[in-house]
C-alpha cells in the first residue's frame, strides 16, 4: 500500500508529529510516554482569559475508583449554560484528559459551554466496560450537579475523537438503555466503533496506512476486549457498531477522513442511525488520514473544527 500521494498537501506536516513506534505490549509504556511528551501541552500555552480550568475527582457511578476530570468553564456566565462531556482518543490504550486541552478551551470559549474532559481508565489494565463506565460517571455527575454548576441539564452533549468517539457512541447507547438522563447531541470524530474491522482483511486499499493501521487497531481492540476482535457476543457498550438497535439516540455529527481506516465503519454507522430515524450530519474530508487535525494550521483542520462547533451550537440553540 502506498497512499501518500492521496494525502492533501496541507496535511503532510501532521505525519511528522507522531512517534514512529510499533504499537505492541512491549512498546505500550514507551508509546504512552512519547504521546504525552509530544502531544500534551502545558495549560499555560493555551490558557484563555475567559475560561476557568479546574481539575477534580468525582465518585464513580458503578462502585469503581474515583474518576479524574478536567472542567473548562466560561467565567462570569450568568444564565444556565450548555455543557459537553469530552472523551479523548488514544486507541483505548493511551492518552489522558489533557490530550484535548487546547480544543476544549476553544470549544468552551467559542460555543459558550462548559466542557468536562474525562480521564477514563485505559486498556489493557482496565477492560471493557470500565472506560465507558468512567465516562458515564462524568455524565451522571454533570447531570446531578447541574444546578450548582450553572448548567442546563437539558442541553448536555457528548463527544470525542477516535477511541473517544467510540466511547461517546457507546455512552449514548448506555445512557439511552439506562434511561436515567438525556443527551441532546453526540459529536463523533473519526470514531473507533467496530472491532470487526480489526478482525478481517481491510478491503479498501486506500485506507489505514498512516497513524492508525490495521495492526494498531487489532492491538487496541484486543487490549480493550481481553480477546481477539471479531468474536461473538461483543457488547455494544464496548463496540457501538455491535448494537442492533440505533433508534432513539441523540442527533449526531460524524466526521472522518477519506484515508482513515475507520472510513467505512463510520459511514455504515451513520447510515444505520439515519435508517433508525436519528438525525445525522456526516462529513468525509478528502485526503485526510486518521488524526489529521494534528496538522493544526491546515485549512482542513480549521474547517473541520469550525463545522463541528457550528453543529454543537445549533444543537444547543434548537
Question: Which labels suit this protein?
Answer:
318 residues; alpha/beta; 10 helices; 18% strand; globular
Describe this entry's structure for a reader.
- This protein is α/β, with parallel strands linked by helices.
- It is 35% helix and 18% strand.
- Strands 1-2-4-3-5-6-7-8 form an eight-stranded mixed beta sheet, with helices on both faces.
- It is globular, with a radius of gyration of 18 Å.
- It starts with 27 loop residues before the first helix and ends with a helix.
- The mean pLDDT is 96.
- Secondary structural class: alpha/beta
Order of helices and strands: HHEEEHEHHEHEHHEHEH
Return residue spans where pLDDT drops below 50 for at least 5 consecutive residues. Answer: none
The main β sheet shows up as: 8 strands, mixed
Assign a percent range to the helix content. Answer: 25-40%
Number of helices: 10
Strand order within the widest sheet? Answer: 1-2-4-3-5-6-7-8
Mean pLDDT: 96
The rounded Rg comes to 18 Å
Coarse shape: globular
Task: State the end-to-end distance.
Answer: 45 Å
> What percent strand?
15-25%
- How many β-strand stretches? 8
Please render the helix and strand layout as text:
Blueprint: H1 28-39, H2 43-46, E1 51-58, E2 67-74, E3 81-87, H3 101-112, E4 114-119, H4 130-144, H5 146-149, E5 151-161, H6 163-178, E6 185-189, H7 196-199, H8 214-225, E7 252-257, H9 263-275, E8 280-285, H10 299-317
Parallel strand pairs: 3-4, 3-5, 5-6, 6-7, 7-8
Antiparallel strand pairs: 1-2, 2-4
Helix pairs in contact: 4-6
